[in-house]
Amino acid sequence: MDKVKGELSSVYLNVEMDKTNIHFANELAELLKPFEQSLGQLKVQKLKLIIHAGTPKTGTTSLQTYLGKKQRKLRGKGILYPHNLGKIQNPNAPKHQWFEKNLVTAHVENFLENFKNIIAQVKEDTHTIILSSEGIYNHWWDFPDDAKDILCALSKLFDIDVWVWFREPLAFIESYYKQCIRNPQIENNPCYGKDLSFAEMLNIAWFSQHLNYQGFVSECQMIFGENNVSLFKYEGDVVQEVIKKLGLATPHDNPTPRENRSLNSAAIALLRTINRYDMKAKDKEFLIPHLKDINGIMKPYANDTLIDEASRKRVLEIASPMNHL
Prior knowledge:
Blueprint: H1 2-32, H2 36-41, E1 48-52, H3 60-69, H4 71-76, E2 79-80, H5 98-104, H6 108-120, E3 128-132, H7 135-138, H8 145-157, E4 159-166, H9 169-182, H10 198-202, H11 205-208, H12 213-224, E5 229-233, H13 238-245, H14 265-274, H15 281-298, H16 309-318
Helix pairs in contact: 1-6, 1-8, 5-6, 14-15
């Protein structure tokens, strides 16, 4: 009897979720209707929605900072890099972390509210919207099926193009390891803010699954369409690549300064010591400027890799090949 009740409860939840997704799609469709005429004049059927999904440690912060500073210039080209809702955490940050946060929890109403905020910023000459958050890739494997249904609904309303940059696997996963060590501890995350060696973290499925480049691409192609996922090889300056793609390049463009410098082995060793304490996130953040100073001083002495030979072989075994790059 309990099993039958459980199955009925699951069916009920699925029906309710389907209703919620239909509501989400209908609400957005109504909001997009007023732009049909102006889009027709631009000879496009749908607004283009570029979703920059990362990956982490591929110049995402530099790109987001650039797009945030160039919002007015982008507007002049019919491209919207939208402001966030004022009520979300850290609303002035030039990235759209609400995207993955609401998908992880399958919180459709909050997701819809953020899209209403975006559409309110669309003007008659807008043809493209850009959203950027490396957390989309980072949390992709945390999205429940209901969240991916929301993305399917989104793909019917917009002409979606997912942009994703990939690094060479060893460089990516070492850099991502450092980011996990640097992050504050979060409940239910087995890697953030922990005192773990690279080899220990590589044994954790949540961490090692980030090497599954092909899995991410294949799922995105299933949801958005095979031709709606654009792959790029990370070569050090994502901003310049995007400037060219958006038609914003000028003869005077200089290489983009990096926003986040990688921590060396000495700074990581100190962070691991700090991570042994049950420290509040804000207190850990107070220490970061001092760690950066130490990082700079130790740069000539601590440039060794954190990946031992056995782990190096494992990374290359785990990493799924990307034949399209």
